Amino acid sequence: xxxxxxxxxxxxxxxxxxxxxxxxxxxxxxxxxxxxxxxxxxxxxxxxxxxxxxxxxxxxxxxxxxxxxxxxxxxxxxxxxxxxxxxxxxxxxxxxxxxxxxxxxxxxxxxxxxxxxxxxxxxxxxxxxxxxxxxxxxxxxxxxxxxxxxxxxxxxxxxxxxxxxxxxxxxxxxxxxxxxxxxx
Length: 184
Hints:
Layout: H1 3-18, H2 25-32, H3 36-42, H4 46-59, H5 65-72, H6 77-94, H7 98-109, H8 114-135, H9 146-162, H10 173-182
Helix pairs in contact: 1-2, 1-4, 1-7, 5-6, 6-8, 6-9, 6-10, 8-9
Protein backbone atom coordinates (compact mmCIF):
# COMPACT_ATOMS: atom_id res chain seq x y z
CA UNK A 1 0.00 0.00 0.00
CA UNK A 2 1.38 3.41 -0.95
CA UNK A 3 2.06 6.16 1.59
CA UNK A 4 -0.88 8.11 0.14
CA UNK A 5 -3.25 5.18 0.63
CA UNK A 6 -2.00 4.55 4.19
CA UNK A 7 -2.50 8.23 5.02
CA UNK A 8 -6.03 8.24 3.57
CA UNK A 9 -6.96 5.06 5.46
CA UNK A 10 -5.56 6.32 8.77
CA UNK A 11 -7.11 9.75 8.32
CA UNK A 12 -10.52 8.24 7.49
CA UNK A 13 -10.44 6.10 10.63
CA UNK A 14 -9.39 9.00 12.85
CA UNK A 15 -11.69 11.62 11.30
CA UNK A 16 -14.68 9.29 11.72
CA UNK A 17 -13.87 8.85 15.41
CA UNK A 18 -12.80 12.38 16.35
CA UNK A 19 -13.75 14.79 13.55
CA UNK A 20 -11.42 17.19 11.77
CA UNK A 21 -10.51 19.31 14.78
CA UNK A 22 -10.11 16.30 17.07
CA UNK A 23 -7.20 14.86 15.08
CA UNK A 24 -3.72 16.22 14.47
CA UNK A 25 -1.56 15.52 11.45
CA UNK A 26 0.95 14.07 13.90
CA UNK A 27 -1.63 11.44 14.93
CA UNK A 28 -2.45 10.69 11.30
CA UNK A 29 1.25 10.30 10.54
CA UNK A 30 1.72 7.95 13.49
CA UNK A 31 -1.28 5.79 12.51
CA UNK A 32 -0.23 5.65 8.85
CA UNK A 33 3.43 4.92 9.54
CA UNK A 34 4.78 7.99 7.75
CA UNK A 35 6.51 11.18 8.78
CA UNK A 36 4.25 14.20 9.32
CA UNK A 37 6.13 16.03 6.56
CA UNK A 38 5.10 13.29 4.14
CA UNK A 39 1.46 14.22 4.71
CA UNK A 40 2.19 17.79 3.62
CA UNK A 41 4.18 16.61 0.62
CA UNK A 42 1.18 14.63 -0.60
CA UNK A 43 -1.65 16.88 0.57
CA UNK A 44 -1.62 20.67 0.50
CA UNK A 45 -3.21 20.90 3.95
CA UNK A 46 -5.00 18.92 6.62
CA UNK A 47 -8.26 20.35 5.26
CA UNK A 48 -7.42 19.11 1.75
CA UNK A 49 -6.75 15.67 3.26
CA UNK A 50 -10.11 15.73 5.07
CA UNK A 51 -11.97 16.70 1.90
CA UNK A 52 -10.21 13.97 -0.06
CA UNK A 53 -11.14 11.41 2.60
CA UNK A 54 -14.77 12.57 2.48
CA UNK A 55 -14.78 12.49 -1.34
CA UNK A 56 -13.29 8.98 -1.40
CA UNK A 57 -15.73 7.67 1.19
CA UNK A 58 -18.73 9.14 -0.63
CA UNK A 59 -17.39 7.87 -3.94
CA UNK A 60 -17.17 4.37 -2.49
CA UNK A 61 -20.94 4.15 -2.02
CA UNK A 62 -22.76 2.29 -4.74
CA UNK A 63 -26.30 1.16 -5.44
CA UNK A 64 -26.61 -2.62 -5.72
CA UNK A 65 -27.71 -3.93 -9.11
CA UNK A 66 -30.08 -6.55 -7.70
CA UNK A 67 -31.89 -3.88 -5.70
CA UNK A 68 -32.03 -1.60 -8.75
CA UNK A 69 -33.71 -4.48 -10.58
CA UNK A 70 -36.28 -4.75 -7.78
CA UNK A 71 -36.88 -1.00 -8.07
CA UNK A 72 -37.24 -1.23 -11.85
CA UNK A 73 -39.89 -3.92 -11.41
CA UNK A 74 -41.86 -1.95 -8.78
CA UNK A 75 -45.29 -1.22 -10.25
CA UNK A 76 -46.53 1.15 -7.53
CA UNK A 77 -45.19 4.23 -5.85
CA UNK A 78 -45.28 2.46 -2.46
CA UNK A 79 -43.22 -0.46 -3.74
CA UNK A 80 -40.81 1.90 -5.50
CA UNK A 81 -40.30 3.90 -2.29
CA UNK A 82 -39.60 0.76 -0.28
CA UNK A 83 -37.16 -0.39 -2.97
CA UNK A 84 -35.42 3.02 -2.89
CA UNK A 85 -35.23 2.79 0.89
CA UNK A 86 -33.64 -0.67 0.61
CA UNK A 87 -31.09 0.73 -1.86
CA UNK A 88 -30.18 3.59 0.49
CA UNK A 89 -29.89 1.29 3.52
CA UNK A 90 -27.71 -1.10 1.51
CA UNK A 91 -25.44 1.75 0.37
CA UNK A 92 -25.09 3.09 3.91
CA UNK A 93 -24.34 -0.38 5.25
CA UNK A 94 -21.35 -0.56 2.89
CA UNK A 95 -19.77 2.30 4.81
CA UNK A 96 -21.32 2.31 8.29
CA UNK A 97 -19.32 5.35 9.41
CA UNK A 98 -20.10 7.59 6.43
CA UNK A 99 -22.99 9.33 8.18
CA UNK A 100 -20.76 10.20 11.13
CA UNK A 101 -18.08 11.55 8.78
CA UNK A 102 -20.69 13.67 6.99
CA UNK A 103 -21.96 14.92 10.35
CA UNK A 104 -18.46 16.02 11.39
CA UNK A 105 -17.90 17.60 7.99
CA UNK A 106 -21.17 19.52 8.23
CA UNK A 107 -20.50 20.72 11.75
CA UNK A 108 -16.89 21.68 11.15
CA UNK A 109 -17.04 23.03 7.59
CA UNK A 110 -20.67 23.99 7.00
CA UNK A 111 -21.27 25.35 3.52
CA UNK A 112 -17.74 24.52 2.37
CA UNK A 113 -18.76 20.89 1.87
CA UNK A 114 -22.10 21.50 0.15
CA UNK A 115 -20.66 21.23 -3.35
CA UNK A 116 -18.98 17.92 -2.59
CA UNK A 117 -22.09 16.48 -0.94
CA UNK A 118 -24.36 17.72 -3.73
CA UNK A 119 -22.18 16.17 -6.41
CA UNK A 120 -22.36 12.73 -4.79
CA UNK A 121 -26.01 12.98 -3.76
CA UNK A 122 -27.08 14.27 -7.16
CA UNK A 123 -25.47 11.25 -8.83
CA UNK A 124 -27.52 8.86 -6.72
CA UNK A 125 -30.71 10.88 -6.90
CA UNK A 126 -30.53 11.28 -10.69
CA UNK A 127 -30.12 7.53 -11.02
CA UNK A 128 -33.23 6.87 -8.90
CA UNK A 129 -35.60 9.59 -10.17
CA UNK A 130 -36.60 7.83 -13.42
CA UNK A 131 -37.58 4.69 -11.51
CA UNK A 132 -39.81 6.60 -9.11
CA UNK A 133 -41.25 8.73 -11.92
CA UNK A 134 -42.17 5.55 -13.79
CA UNK A 135 -44.00 4.20 -10.71
CA UNK A 136 -46.02 7.38 -10.27
CA UNK A 137 -49.44 7.27 -11.90
CA UNK A 138 -50.12 9.93 -14.57
CA UNK A 139 -52.72 11.64 -12.37
CA UNK A 140 -49.99 12.24 -9.72
CA UNK A 141 -47.39 13.82 -12.03
CA UNK A 142 -48.01 17.40 -10.93
CA UNK A 143 -48.20 16.54 -7.25
CA UNK A 144 -44.95 14.62 -6.70
CA UNK A 145 -41.38 15.88 -6.97
CA UNK A 146 -39.43 12.61 -7.19
CA UNK A 147 -36.10 14.34 -6.40
CA UNK A 148 -37.47 15.80 -3.19
CA UNK A 149 -39.06 12.51 -2.11
CA UNK A 150 -35.81 10.59 -2.72
CA UNK A 151 -33.82 13.24 -0.86
CA UNK A 152 -36.21 12.89 2.10
CA UNK A 153 -35.63 9.13 2.16
CA UNK A 154 -31.84 9.63 2.00
CA UNK A 155 -31.91 12.30 4.73
CA UNK A 156 -34.07 10.12 6.94
CA UNK A 157 -31.70 7.16 6.62
CA UNK A 158 -28.59 9.29 7.19
CA UNK A 159 -30.13 10.72 10.35
CA UNK A 160 -31.20 7.28 11.49
CA UNK A 161 -27.65 6.02 11.02
CA UNK A 162 -26.15 8.98 12.88
CA UNK A 163 -28.51 8.52 15.81
CA UNK A 164 -28.82 4.73 15.64
CA UNK A 165 -27.35 4.40 19.10
CA UNK A 166 -30.45 6.14 20.49
CA UNK A 167 -33.19 3.91 19.14
CA UNK A 168 -34.05 0.79 17.25
CA UNK A 169 -36.89 0.96 14.76
CA UNK A 170 -39.00 -1.73 16.38
CA UNK A 171 -42.15 0.36 16.05
CA UNK A 172 -42.15 0.30 12.25
CA UNK A 173 -41.68 4.09 12.10
CA UNK A 174 -39.60 3.87 8.93
CA UNK A 175 -42.32 1.94 7.09
CA UNK A 176 -44.90 4.45 8.30
CA UNK A 177 -42.68 7.32 7.09
CA UNK A 178 -42.35 5.73 3.62
CA UNK A 179 -46.10 5.08 3.43
CA UNK A 180 -46.79 8.73 4.29
CA UNK A 181 -44.40 9.84 1.55
CA UNK A 182 -46.16 7.55 -0.88
CA UNK A 183 -49.47 9.19 0.00
CA UNK A 184 -48.26 12.67 -0.98
